[in-house]
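User: I'm new to structure prediction. If I give you an amino acid sequence, what do you actually give back? Let's try with this one:
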Amino acid sequence: MSLEEDALALAKVELFANVAPRRLKLLALASSRVLFEGGQALCVQGQEGDEAFILISGEADVSIKSANGVAVVARLKPNDVVGELAILRDMPRNATVTAVTDVATLRIGKQDFLNLLKEFPEVSIEVMRALAERLVRTTTELANSRAAAKSEN
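Assistant: Good question. You get back a string of structure tokens that encode the predicted 3D arrangement of the chain. For your 153 residues, that looks like this:
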């Protein structure tokens, strides 16, 4: 795909909705296309994370391994971003992401992602909003799970 098509794909991502088109072209220039076949891992829980992926097409499952086994906690679709937490926390990945179908992504390296956040405060705000929404959703799911477990006992 062309630089223009990649920039248009980035414009569809909620995190980058308020970024000027010319800035999206710079981000597209700094990113690279990576394709994954169904069943292939985009990232693996416990491994170091130095890149984020934006899904352009296809679907992927987010799973977490715990003492109770492996649980799929989310299904990613086009325009979703994955891997930004490992970059922001500077820690190993907290989940495994596996392509359910063939998946096309834009890969953004750690330094390019961090530079984007420094240069464009509007992107930093959107990242914070997205993380806050995830936290609220996770907290609600945890509360519901605990309530269900108590009612079973």
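You can read the tokens as a compact description of the fold. Here is one thing that stands out. The radius of gyration is 16 Å.
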